[in-house]
Structures are given as structure tokens and as C-alpha cells.
Task: structure prediction
Amino acid sequence: MRESHGATPRQMSPDRSGADVREHFRPLFEPRAIAIVGASASGRTRANDVLDFTLALGFEGAVYPIHPTAATIDGLKAYRSFADCPTGIDYAFVAIAAARVPELLRAGGERVRFAQIMASGFGETAEGTMRERELLAIAREKGVRLIGPNCLGTYSPRGHLAYIRDCPREAGSVGVALQSGGISTDMLRRGVQRGLRYSAVVSIGNCIDVGASDFLEHFLADSTTHVIGFYLESLRDGRRFFELLRDAKARKPVVILKGGRTRVGQRIASTHTGALAGDDRLWTALSRQTGATVVDSVDAFIDSLLAFQCLRPRIGRPGIGAFLVGNGGGASVLASDAMARLGMRVPEMHEDTRRALRSLDLPAGTSLDNPMDTPSGAMRIDDGRIAVRLLTAILAGERPDAILFHINMPQFLTNASIPDHVFDNLVDGIVETRTGDHESTPILLALRSDGSVAIDARKRSARERALAAGVPVFDEIASALTALAHFQRHERFRHRACEGSSAIVDPI
Result:
């Protein structure tokens, strides 16, 4: 695979160990001293906000605001340049005009390990290309690694760095690098609301120096990162990115949201990050040969990362199907169609399982097949605790590749004849089953809401309980099935890789 544009970035030694990689990136993700450039002593700028957000996340190391004239900024002593700071700087957030950045690095840039450049006006425009080359030449002379330019910041819960308000303090297992500041904030807003918890989120912009391959190498070596995600518009060293993925043999799932896969998208990408986005066929080939998952939307990106965060691959049992349980006959038909389009099996239920389910005295209208249509009357048996017995029977009789339980929430929460706690008992039963399943069968939950404030509030509470037990929660059946299909494709790829056979698996 090959994509290139502009200057070739510095590459790290190909023979260095994972420990070397982790240590190289420690100043970025666990800095002891940071500098903030562009904060105002009299008003509010983006740099002031980043300073506030980072301190609010609990950063306790040295903080050096850089300002040409101010004595203090937000109560902290200010310094005229990097050279004037009392210690070296692990990470510098730079939010000044593009024309001023080269001179900033000339004055003490050798004291900085990583500098993240927020400004645009570099390689994404014709007139900025020379400035970008100048900036990169200075960085190489000074030995500072550059992130960006044209990016928003870095979120590292273990390093107490943040670039938007109210980032979670607890560290998670998903590491993401994105060539879009806007999509990076989507991940930190929508992704967190959906239950994603991050080891790091980095907005990487134009990638004139530190690029996607460098972050891939780091996330593969980082023991706190179990799932890796990228939003990419271009790759300056596509061959290295491919080889890192190939050599990793899918030991960690990698999900790629690729922008610029059409001619129109490529044209827009060139004005966004100065990218040459490349042929879509390259990304299909990369997915088939490395096991990486390539998706087409932010929603699919979040869904897939969530599935990989919650579910653990079963290498000895690579699945290609699922059993569906829930209320709604039409929903079951549409789900079956979706599974067929995704290449997933919809296995018929065994007679032994049917007998076990009949013994539960389910009401007429309950379908004893797959998908299993369980009307609200069936799901409210024993105040919703029937969920445990339903799932236990399916697990014992079918040993399914996965189970997707879907609930049309308004049917329970707007029906005066059904007590509110029935819905909670259904969710708790799913959690109980998942916790007690020693084979760790993937169980997914689709909670379908009508968008009302009251029902969405109940959905948030249910999502938290389910996620704590490793049950990913989706808004729709189709999105859950697509995420599951990506997960099962990853299982098959890893299984074949572990067997030493050809590990090529067709993408979704």
C-alpha cells in the first residue's frame, strides 16, 4: 500500500522494542511538564480553555504559559519563550497564528519533546506549503516532534491532558487518532455518551511529522490500549502502516474510518488536511489482508469500537451468526434481512431448545425459532425476570455464536398496565446472564427509544448497567448487527492467523 504527499516524516527505528516505543511517547501521554502557547492574560482564547480543561482533569506537573509580555496568565507565571522555562517541556500545546510558529520553535524548541500545533494555514493551502516545509525543517533541527498542524489537541486520562470540557477522568482501553478536530470532538462527546472509554484521543491534523503509523505503533505496544481507531484522510507512509498491521496479525482490533474514498471526498480532503486520499481499492485490500475493519460513518465507527471494547474474541470458535431475541415481529424480519446482507447465519432453533422454552409457559404468539419474537406479554413474565431463563435456555441448547437482545422501550415504559420495573428487570436479567456465562458468549443489547426525554433517561441508566457487565448497547438492531459482523470477521481473521493458514477474510 502506498500513499504519499509532501515531505516524508521521520520514522522511528524499525528494530526497537515495544518498551522503546512506549518510552518515546511517554512525554506526550504522561507529561511531567507542559507549556501552553497562545493563552491571553486579559481575555479567553482556545489556549486558555485547554489550560483550564487540563487543570480540571487533575494535571499536577509543571505548567508554563508562554507569552511575549504577560507576567502571569490565569494565576500562573508566564515565560517569554521555551528557552526561558526552568525545565524541559514534555508537551507543548501551541495555539498561535501559523506565521508565528516557526519563530516560536527557533527560540528554545530543542527543550520540547512534543509540540502540538493547532493553527491551520500550512499544507492544506498552496501558500502554506512553504511554511510547512520550514516548520518541519526547524523541528528536525531542534529535535522536537510535531503533531499536526491543523489539529485540536490531545486527551490522555492517565496523563491528565484534555482539550475539551468534562472529559472522563477514568482511563479506558480505546486509543484513537484522528485527522479531523471535529470528529475527534464527536468521539469525546458522542462516543463517551455511548460508553466508550479511552486510553487516548489525539487530533493529528496534517501529520507532517508524527503520523498515523507512529500512533499505530504506539497503540500496538501500549498495554493500556486494547482497541485502536483511526479517522484518516491520507497516509504519508502507507507501506509502513500496512506492514505494522500485517505483522500484528490482528492481535488488537483496528477500526478505520476512512475519509476521501470517493472522488468528491478526495477533492474535499485535499482542502481539509492537504491530503492525497488514495484509491478506495487500497483500503479494501488492506482490510482483507490485515484484518483491520474499515467503516464509512462516525456512527459505524463508534458502534464498532464499542463492540470491540466490550466483547472478547473467542479464537477457537469463530462465529458468523447470531440468535435474536426481542419484541417485534416486523423488527425480527428486518433483522433477518440485515443478517443475510451481512453474510451472517440465522441458524434455526434446535428441538431440544424449543422444548426447554415451551416449559416456560410462554404465551401464544411467542415464536420458538430464530429470530425469537417475544411479545411484551412474554417478556413481562415474572416481572421481566423471564429474560434469564430465556437466555439460559438458548445458551445451553444452541451454544450460539452471539445473542442480540432487542427491546422496544416505549412498549414497556408507556404502557400503564406494565410496571416500570419490568424493563429494569429485563436489562438486569441480560446482565446477570452475561456475567454468569463462563464461555463469554457475546451478548449485545439494542434499546430502541422514541427519543422522548423520559425514555432516553431510562436508556442512559440501562446502558450504564449493561456496559459495566460487558454488554454493548446500540440504538438500533441494524447497527448492532453490523458491529457484530465486524467483530466476528475479526474473530475469523485471528483464528486463521493463529492456525497459520491464510488469514484473508473478506470485509463487510
